[in-house]
What does this fold into?
Amino acid sequence: MRDVAIIGVGMIPFGRRDEDTLMDMLAYASLKALDDAGLGDKGVDAVYVANMGGGMLQHQSSIASSLVDRLSLLPAPADTVENGPASGASAIKNGLLAVASGYYDLVLVVGGEKMREVTGWRATDFVATMTHPQAEYPYGITLPGMAGMFTRLYMEKYGVTREHLLAVSLKNQEMGCLNPYAHVEMALDRKGIYDSPHAVVNNPISADPLHLYDLCPVSDGAAAVVLCPLEMAEKFNKHPVVISGFGQATDTHTLAEREDPTDLKAVTLAAEQAFAMAKLKPSNIDVAELHDAFTILEIAESEHVGFFKKGEGGKAVVAGKTRLGGQIPINLSGGLKARGHPVGATGVAQVVDIVWQLRHELPENRQVKNAKTGLTVNFGGFGNNVLCFILRRAQS
Amino acid sequence: MPFDMELESVLRPPQVPMPPYPSKVIILANGKKMVIRQAVREDVPAILKSVHPCLFIERDYYDVVSARLYGELLAWYRYRVKSEYCLMGQVDGYLVGVVNGRLENEKVGMSYHTLAIDRGLRIGSHLFAAKMEYHMDFMGQEEVLIVAESPIGFRRWMIEYPLEPTKIPHELGGGDSYRLTRALYEAAKPRLVVGDRPVPQDLLDEATAEIKFADDDTIRERIAGLKGR
It folds into this structure.
């Protein structure tokens, strides 16, 4: 198997992109990544497109076929990858395996989603289609609902408090203000959302015990990466970043069937595989992007990948250990919480942000000094399909 | 244009002074303080300057809501509507939202419009709540009739309170009215109606000294831009 490098990345600002179609967004992000790599007129050998909801939200299928035509990349083979909110990382995995195997040399992976075309409750319903069609969905479960129940259990078992959740929310929205690609560029105020009687309106309960600002926004957006074998990477524009480890695992579809619903086994397994492949330990990671669709998930994932012991993740956020300059900076992009969560784009966007970190291209207020290794967790379903990547800055 | 006061006395509805709405201050999610206070007729030209750029924004029915609000405020300013009032929200002196309504009669209030000129901070929610507070707590009315012209309005009023559907036509001529009864108001009040009184003098002075308004592009960006929420 060949080592695989990321030689180009691109992202468009996330938000409410009323003027753009899904295809526009995928194309913009792709062109940025191709330009970033300096591919010029060279085509690519294959294209993988991550998207979860084109069929439901835009009534559009065969998205990858449409995109290669739009980008004049014909006759590149193209596949659409749908794996719920983990579609982005799944598409990268497919590209990674294709290049590592030696079958393709240059692969474009792009993820995108257009979710603001529908009302909030339709978007919530669309996301809920990933729940079990007989055991969960008919009873009205939504992902925020699941996250609420998970949070309650996690609080009872591990002592997570609202203060811990609040700390994630404040940190990530503060970082979002520094990220021009973030959907939400608004710093929150502790008094405004927690410590005053007015917070009851500003930050109402969404799914007890989670409040409005514990949830990520519904966003439009797209992100892309270009992959090639490491041995070819030096021919291109930018300092290569190597995908040195990846892991993927699944878990029961229904949360209720898990022996311990607070145990995110798929996160642990995916991270263990990635660390084993990269020959690294959690303490070797310089920066991470975790899937904080809900504030509790940043805390739980930081424990399940091994950055902190169970029950310590929340305290670590409050202590500033996950901020820039802390023990393990997490979600310096603002995470899903502030950057936004266009579901098909998220897994790719996480990797793009880590690539910028490892190429040392971010402004000082977001850049981990001399970052060499980064980790991403892209969390599908409610932890029933999880991918973890470990990236490292290639040696000069 | 000179007035023919004899004719005006026919055209103008009787002018009934509206009870005062005591100003209040609310801390928003971003920590900024929003002063909500009652507008007087002389404030209307300044308010209309902020409403004007919204007339051309289709997103979330801003065009419909702001066009109607513009007309309603203008009618109030030029003495063509009876028993209308307007409350406004200001942050650092800048106008961030407007609500209006009128009295149908002593017991029944008629809610007109809610326009949030800055978004993502639940300004509309706070202002609508202030409007209901005015009808219920300060004018002692028994019910308020309400319609929504946007899905966001429907979610905020009909679902969040929740309001009671009726078959009563609304003055705005759209869908049938929903009703906020006193019982519904009292039930919703603890989770939807907030604010501190009295407003500290420095904040009140800043709000009353001048109604500041952002430029058209800023307003359009806040409402319909990429970061619009």
